[in-house]
Each structure stands twice: as structure tokens, then as C-alpha cells.
Amino acid sequence: MGNGKKLMKRLLRSVRQKSANADPQGQDPNPPTELSANLDENVRMIQSIYEDCSDVIFHDFFIGGQTRAVLVYIEGLTHIEEVDRHVLAPLQQHFALEPELPNIRKAIAVSSIKELKSTTDIVEQLSGGNPILFVEGEKQGLSVGLPMWEKRAIEEPSAESVLRGPREGFIESLRSNTALLRRKIKSPNLKIKAMNIGVYSGTKIAVAYIEGIAAPALVEEMMSRLRRIDIDGVLESVYIEELIEDNPTSPFPQLLSTERPDVASAYLLEGHVVVLVDGTPSVLVAPVTFISLLQSPEDYYERYVVGTAIRWLRYLFFGISLLGPSFYVAVITYHQEMIPTPLLLTMAKSREQVPFPALVEALLMESMFEALREAGARLPKQIGTAVSIVGALVIGQAAIAAGIVSAPMVMVVAITGIASFMAPRFTVGIAIRLLRFPMMLLAGFLGFLGLILGIIVILNHLLSLRSFGVPYMSPLAPFKSRDLRDVLARAPRWMLNTRPHLTGKWNPYRQAPGQRPGPAKGDEGG
Amino acid sequence: MVEKGRISAFQMGRMIYLAITPTAILTTPAITFKFAKQDMWISPIWAFCGLITLYAVFRLHAIYPGRNIVQACEAVIGRLPGKLLGALFLLYYLYLIGIILREYGEFVVGSFLFTTPLIVVSGSMVLVCAIAVRGGVEIVGRFAELLLPAFVTLFLFIIIPIIPDLRVPNMFPIMANGITPSLAGAFVLQTWFSELISASFLLPLVADQKKAKTSVLIALLMIVLTLVVANLATLMLLGDITGGYTYPFLILARYINLAEFFTHLEAIFMAIWVLGAFVKICVFFYVTVLGAAQWMNLSDYRPIVFPIGLLVTLSSMWVAPDLQKLTFSISTSVTFSAMTMFVIVPMLLLCLAWVQKRWRGTAAKG
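ok -> C-alpha cells follow
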């Protein structure tokens, strides 16, 4: 039975793959061709590939005044001054040797030169920004490593700012990003495997991990999931994320995306795998657990007491952001006896002229808040402030004065809003904000019972979720007592001797035990 | 194998604890008080049925490793009688979940959502449980793992604030009429202790078998301890009026008054108690579904989760016409039938299995 099922699956997959290959979109647009010894033929071949591409420049010249050569490059992707100085100048002006490839290589003063035989390699190098040199009578093209394009300076990532800690952030260039990682982790055990994904975009993807810390099975799983991707283009790492998740229908992210090299390095040191995508500053980290999505790098940069306190504050407000309005609705609608009498009287007074039941009121205000947040985020900064002022005035003051909503409701919505911004990862915050709405409905229909049933359903989802084989709710369930010291508290660094257990074999010790510092012994008399 | 997931011994212990305690705390004090009066706190210590059941479960599992009691039936008494007994077992389980679900529903409707129809309360719970049961034993185990701390915290949260108001004289005279009253009070508790038979269905799924026995015995100990503490607190706070309430422990929650501000916290009590009841119903539901799938030789139990969920809901409607009859039957017929099915039958099976083993051993020798 099991065998039959497996066979069917394999068959289906192979059929699917075949149909994908037959699809013109899935096909390589330029089949590889070998170069010939004829310069004109080679140039024609490249020209036909880059037909109607006005940004591709073909520059004719003579090496040493006698041998014809053509330099091909893409304008804007190549460091043209360097090409003039180190390629054209020595070849055109001071070249006295036999015009053979080895001699030409000697003359060009550039550190990275490659000999290429097929058009596919040439196209890849050209689009990578490397100019290609074709020489009369040579069956090979020379790729000269002088790429240069406009890129942003390394700045502090605005979405993940910290008070203390490094201020640098990833940028859109893959090489700069891998360099940022390599600067933090200098060991040659930091492996960065590269691959290209995207038939048209040919986006460079790098998979970084530390050999000896990351479980080999995890790396293999990541590579195989990446290899399975067949897509026309990758413009942001979320393209990759959605194609390699364990449960693509879940509202919860199963990969963490960060713009901070220090966060990525911290995860690398704990045995996670980092996926860097060219063209975007956000890199992906896998696997992650739910708890790790609620942690901020700042927890580790503060003193541990403060880190622990902030962490608990965050857990508390995480609960509020999910349950705040629904708790209020349940109490107001079903469990009024829970409210102390003086408070109940005040609340009754403010609710007296409100025409809606608490549930409708809550839904109204919460959707209004979401709309305000979205409008504020999408607008230019100058108008954004206007939106928030209008929102605060109209929704806060005027709505209460007009008797449409009650003042406690506005307070609840405001507190919930602030609480939802406390989630250090935007993706988690938005998932929780969405789940708030069904929770409000449940609370409106069944009171606390509905609330609990909703929590059970969410928990059920979280408990069955996995991120690259790691249970999402670990170390809480399945329970791993050793890892709890980094969940219930942020233990002082000299106590965090072990790495969290992710999957399979792992390298448990991250530091020597017994490093608790103290005053020097024998100094007490002083 | 119908179930591919595995649980740890630790998870199993927590599942067993939560599969017994929540309804026991709620329903039994009133009934126990009727018989044992001021000795009601001694009653939970007479957990004979629990020990006997666990003994039968572990011995049977030692003789037939990897098989639960329904599967062992077939091996001991032959295919056809074994199937019949297995069916009886599963039907009884269905009846028992009906009772548990009804207890839960009556509690919620009777104390909090007065105008909500019973079927909505029990139906929504069955739906939620069905979703969890479809996730398999791993998910149910993780739920138990995650919710036990919440449950224990709630329990302590109710007990600790009322400590200043506890009147120790309420428990005197201890054993004024010998141990008979406390034994009589323990009678109703035997239903709950015999429910430990669920361990038989979970035991084959435990990954670290060596720790399983200790884990379950600790769970039993904790159950007894929890009930003793709960009964003691109820008795010392309420004294002679304990019997007058349907849910004496709920009165304890209502009694809490922190700084004149946090009062009437029984809704919170209900909320977290629902979490406990959820795990309890999940465990029984899971056992029924797993047993039924094995009994019918299905390759997967997931397709029958929702149909059995429907049966469970119906059974909860049919077990009793109202709460009074339900409580009455729990203190009389249910106890007898549970003891028959979960204590006597497993013991008989065990004896038969022993005799068979002996007989086969001598036959092999001769």
C-alpha cells in the first residue's frame, strides 16, 4: 500500500517535471554553443543573442596594432575607467609579444580573468558585469573581472533598529552581504554555497552555514528544496520563502527574514542556515521556532536582567495584541461580574449612548485602526503624519464625542495597536493582527469559552507546524528543559553554554563552562 | 501501524494526569462529601482501582509488547471473541466520553453561559478536539505538555489566596467512624482511577519505554495529591455546606478577593479549566478513534475522526436527560460498569494470558 502510494507520487512528480520542461517558459532561452576560431562568427553569435539590446557595447580594436579583437560589455555594469587603464591601454599601446591568449592574459593587470568556451558562460559573465574580450583566431573568450554598478551604501536597517549593537545592515548586493557575514565569522568553516535561480532573472542565491555546527541533513534539505524551485524570476527573498516553506498556507512565517548581519551571524553560530538572495537586503534564516520570532537582538545586547524583563514584557504584550479586544468584548458581553463595581459603573456610563454591541464596536474600531496603519505606512512621510493626526482626532476624540464608540473601546484598541507593534518581527505581528478578528467574533458569540476554543485552534496549528523539521513550538512542546533558559529568561552569557537543539546531530557546546566572572581572589583586604 | 507519531514518557505522564484530574476536581467533591463527610480528603488515597488497572496494563504490555488492550484481547481469547470484546470496549469508551462531554457541557451551561444551548457548547468542543485528534498523538501529547503548567498554575492560583481563610477544625474528628466512610466516599472516585486504562492505548506509542512506568506512576501520585489538596481546601473552607453545591471547587474560585479589586474570577477558572477538559476529551477521543481504526483494520484513523466526533456528540446527549440524573448515574451505575470494563476485564485478560503462557511453556517442555 505504502509502496504503491510512493510510486504514484514519484510518477506524478516526473510527469509534472516533464510538463514543466515542455513549457516554453521553463526552457533555457539560449541553448549553449561552443565558440569558434573565427572572430566575426563569435561576435555575430553574441550579437544575435543580444539583439535589440542597446546597452550591450561591442568595441573593436587592434592588439599591438595588428591582431583584431572585440571587447563586449554591458554599459553601467562595468567599471569602464579600469577597463581603459588595465585592459585597453596595455593591449593597444604597449603590446609587443605574440598575440596569443597566455600573453594577453599576462598583459592585462586584473586579478580575476577567466577563459570561456561556451556562449552560456559568456552570457552569464556578461550579465554579471564582466567585460568579455574576443581575439581573432582564439576559440576562447576572456572574461575580465571588472564589474561595477550603483549600489546603496551600508546603512542601519530602519525596520530593525537597536539602541546598542552594530548599525550596519545588509544591502541589495549579494557579494557585499556575504562579505558582511565573512567579516563577522572569519573561520573557513563558514561555507557559502552559490546557485542561480530564476530562468530569466538568473538571480544569485547563496546558502551560508557553519560546517560542524549546522546539521548536514539540514543543509542538504535546504539545498534540495532550493534546487526544486523552477521560476521565471526572483525579485525578493519572499519568492524563495514561499517556495520552500513547510506549510505554505499558514499565517505564521516559518523562515525568519532579517536585514541585520549580526542577527544572521548569531543564527549561523547556533547552527541555522542562512539564505542570501541577490537584489534584496532581507536574508532568510531557517529553521526558526515561534519563540525565536519573539526575540530581538537587543535582548542579547542588554544586561541579562533587563533582557529578561523586556522579553517578558514582550510576551505579555504579545498576548494582549492577540487577545486584548476579544477579552474586552467577552467581559463586556458575558462576564460583567468580573469587572470591579466602581469600574463597571464608569464603563456603563461611557457605553450608555453607544448604539452598537461591543462586538460590532470592536470590529469597527479594529478595522479602522488597521486601515490607518496601512495608510500611514504606504504614504510619503509628510502626508503620513497628516493621516495619523486626522486618525487620532476623528477616530479618537470625535467618535467618542459623537457617541459612536465608547472611550474604553478606543483605549483597548490603542493598547492593542501598541502591543502589536512590539512584535520584533513584522511578519509575526501581522499574523497576530489578522488572527485578532476571528478571536473577536468567537468572543462575541461564546464569551470566554469561545476565546479558549480559539486559542486551542491556534495552538493546535502552532503545535503541528514545523520549520525544516523543527517543531515550531519547541522548546516548550516538545519540552526541552535545557533550552528554556533562553526562553523563559535571557540567561547571563556565562550560563548559555549550549546551543539550542534543532534537528538531528548537533554540536552542543558553544563555550567553555564555568566562565562566571568574579572579583579577583585574595583582594578582599584592599 | 495506524499511528506513526511517537510521544515521550514525560508527555504520556502529563496526558494521563490531565485525562483524569479536570473532571475529578469538579464533580467528585460533592459526591464524596455525601459519603465521607469530614473524611473526604482521605478518599482519594484509596486509589485501588488505579493501581490494579495500571498493574494489568503494564503486565499485559509486557506479555504483548506493542499492543494495546483491544489488540491484546484478540491474542488472548481468539479472533472472534476478541473482536467482540474489543467492540464492547470501544462502545463503552464512546459512552464514557459522552459522560465526560456532558459533564463539561453541563458545567459551562450551568455556571456561565446560561442561555447557550448545550449542543453548541459540547459540539464546539468536539470540533476543536477532532481537529487536534486529526493531528495525531504527537499533537495531543504536546498539548498536554503545554497546558499542564497552565492548569497547575490555575490550581495554585485558586488554593493559595484562600489559605488564610481555611479553618482546620472543619476536618476534625478525623476518622471518627473508622475508615468506612472514607472508603464509601472513594467508591465514586474509582471511575476516574479506572480511566487510567487509557494508558494501555498510549503505552505502545511511547518512544522511551523504560521511563513510561515511572512516568505513569508519578502521574497517578500527582492525581491523588491534587485531589487530596482540592478536597482538603474545599472541606476547610466550606465545611458542612460542601454537599450543598454542585461544583464546590468553583465556589473556591468565586471566593477569591484580591485587593478588593480582582473578584469573581470564576470566569478565568472556567477558561483554564476548559483547557484541562480539552486535553481530557482529546485523550479519550483519540483512544476511541485509534481503537476503532485498529479494530476495523484501517490503514489510517484520520477519516473516521469526524464521524466518531458526531457519535460522541450524540452520545453526550443520550447519556442522561439532565444533570441530576447524570450525577446520580455517575455515583452508581457508571462506577460499576467502569470498574467491570476497566478493572475486572483487564485483570481477567491478564490471568488468561498468564495461564496461556504457563500452559504453552509446559506444553513446549513436555
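Chain A touches chain B through 27 residues (CB under 8 Å).
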